[in-house]
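User: structure tokens for this one?
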Amino acid sequence: MKNTKFAVKVNRGGARAAEYVERIDCIPVRMTLKRNLALLMGKFTAQDVMQSLKNSRCATELVPVQV
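Assistant:
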């Protein structure tokens, strides 16, 4: 049986590649370009991270991952 976890994808616009949240226990939040290093979390935790990263220069989205 597979569970669905979520990764938070952050797009800062411009020529930068999309990044994924790697760690949330440090300030600022640590990002990575590699999806396989992204932090997998539950939906409610991922939504909390999205709210904390929300600003005018970042577009965030949830990426579902089957584990």
